Amino acid sequence: MARREPEAEAVAVEEINEERANRERDALTISLTTVNLVRTEELMQAIQEITTPQTSLPGLIAIPDARSVIELENIHKTYTMGDIQVHALRGVSLTIGKGEFVAIMGASGSGKSTTMNILGCLDRPTKGTYILDGQDVSQMSKDERADIRSRKIGFVFQGFNLLVRTSALENVELPMLYAGIAGSQRHERAIESLAAVGLAGREQNHPNQLSGGQQQRVAVARALVNHPALILADEPTGNLDSRTAIEVMEIFQRLNRERGMTIVLVTHEADIAQYAQRVVVFKDGKIRKDYRVEDQRDAFEELRNLPAVEEDDDEE
């Protein structure tokens, strides 16, 4: 049998990784829709599953006097396919300071998705060191990484991953159930988080009563509610129209500017990357570019200049 070229193997591995992650997230969403919220123990177990598995140029753009939230040092990731070893990441080093807003880009097979999985503690590097918010997570066990994800990382996915039979408020409360936070505090923090993304008054709406943009806002609120060190957004505008995408990016920019949230955004879209402060581009398992965005787009100003829409249009 003819051997495929290394670049083709890398693309194949990257695509397998993306398909595997998507299958795990879809299966998780389906299983969580059957959760009975009255049975607290079962619900807490379901939330534990959502935090259980399914990636430079070091320090080129550091923020003065800011502690690093992400430190990758000489990260390698190798997959074995039969008798062939495919190197998905080849010595990646990257530092992201507290309060930075960074976009990660790259074509299929570039190592972007593998880096995403490692940053999110969904996978471990074959070699190298990953320090997340001052803690070495490089070789943690599956359970240890699940605990780190629940405490330090807020995820926002392209497909929203909301429980369809529960309200917006209950969806946002879910991570706090697993964290063991008292009911009254959960309720208060969930309401505050929904208000922060512009959904005050929508707390009792179910996902099918919300537009795509509103569902993504619920997902952002859920990511914020445990006060994570890092927001990791995987193609968060991929299922949205252009106007709604700008609205979501306005929320990310506001959270970054007003609250100092550290945000890492993975995207294929160069125009979406322009909302970040910094862009990191992957190719062939390495970081090829790492640069400051000179003419950063301002989502708030762009929204002000767009024509007004009727409320009914927004609800469709």
Task: Give a written overview of the molecule.
The protein is an alpha/beta fold and 316 residues long. The protein has a single domain, classed as Rossmann fold (3-Layer(aba) Sandwich), CATH 3.40.50. The chain has eleven helices and ten strands. It has helices at residues 6-32, 40-50, 112-119, 142-152, 168-178, 183-196, 212-224, 242-259, 270-273, 299-305, 311-315; strands at 68-81, 84-97, 101-106, 127-132, 135-136, 153-157, 230-234, 263-266, 278-283, 286-292. β1 and β2 form a beta hairpin. The longest helix has 27 residues, at 6-32.
Secondary structure topology:
Elements lengths: L5 H27 L7 H11 L17 E14 L2 E14 L3 E6 L5 H8 L7 E6 L2 E2 L5 H11 E5 L10 H11 L4 H14 L15 H13 L5 E5 L7 H18 L3 E4 L3 H4 L4 E6 L2 E7 L6 H7 L5 H5 L1
Parallel strand pairs: 3-8, 3-9, 6-7, 7-8
Antiparallel strand pairs: 1-2, 1-4, 4-5, 9-10
What attributes characterize this protein structure?
single chain, about 325 residues, alpha/beta, Rossmann fold, six-stranded mixed beta sheet, four-stranded antiparallel beta sheet
SSE ordering:
HHEEEHEEHEHHHEHEHEEHH
What spatial order of strands do you see in the largest sheet? 6-7-8-3-9-10
Regions with pLDDT < 50 over 5+ consecutive residues? Answer: 27-65
Gap from first CA to last CA: 52 Å
Q: If you average the pLDDT, what whole number results?
A: 82
Give me the CATH fold name: Rossmann fold
The profile of the biggest β sheet is: 6 strands, mixed
> Would you identify the CATH H-level superfamily?
P-loop containing nucleotide triphosphate hydrolases
Strand content: 15-25%
How many β-strand stretches?
10
CATH class: Alpha Beta
Oligomer: single chain
Q: Provide the gyration radius in Å.
A: 19 Å
Overall spatial form: globular
Secondary-structure content class: alpha/beta
Please work out how many helical segments DSSP would assign.
11
- CATH architecture name: 3-Layer(aba) Sandwich
Residue share in helix: 40-55%
Domain count: the total is 1
